[in-house]
Write a structure and sequence with these properties.
The chain has 175 residues and is an alpha+beta fold. It contains five helices and six strands. Helices cover 43% and strands 18% of the residues. β4 and β5 (94-99) form a beta hairpin.
């Protein structure tokens, strides 16, 4: 299992069982290095879904009490583990990434800091769990991703935009 994508690269690989093992290792490191509780760390995204093709980057959701006032010890601990805050502007979310080396060209992990148990947290968990339990939706999502890459060689924005309506439709099922 090799994790990592270069800036604006979009590549899909088959599911790898090692992704879960890597998540467990990273989660333990986060627990050891920050004041975050175990229930506040979840493996999300396609690498958390058995049988799903995925970009080889591990996505981890971390729930915090207040996204506008994150405990400094959290940032210090994550930084100590090699996670750097990105200049990504998303509502109610702070994104950090881990890179393969000091060139900062290839990301291997993302952390999505969101408010614990709020709308975004619940949506991320629901989306993962829905696709795990619903084979038809999982296959539809897989096909959507594969077909996009067959027809486009664009960057991450086009890839993400192409999936947005599907993701929103799944979020709506939670309500």
């Amino acid at each position: 299992m090799k994790l990592g994508l270069k800036r604006n690269e979009v590549r899909l690989v088959p599911y790898a069982a090692e992704w879960h093992k890597e998540f467990v290792n990273v989660k333990q490191s986060i627990l050891n290095s920050t004041p975050i509780q175990e229930r506040q760390i979840e493996h999300v995204g396609s690498t958390a879904i058995k049988g799903m093709v995925a970009k080889p980057i591990l996505d981890i959701a971390i729930g915090v009490d207040d996204i506008n006032n994150v405990d400094r010890a959290i940032f210090q601990g994550l930084n100590h583990l090699g996670f750097l805050r990105l200049r990504v502007e998303r509502p109610n979310e702070i994104v950090l990434a881990k890179f393969t080396d000091e060139t900062f060209e290839e990301k291997t992990h993302y952390i999505h800091l969101v408010e614990y148990d709020n709308e975004l947290w619940k949506n991320l968990i629901f989306f993962r769990d829905y696709l795990i339990s619903n084979e038809a939706a999982r296959e539809q999502y897989k096909s959507l991703k594969i077909e996009y890459l067959k027809q486009n060689n664009g960057g991450i924005k086009g890839y993400t935009d192409n999936k947005e309506q599907f993701v929103r439709n799944i979020y709506e099922k939670r309500k």
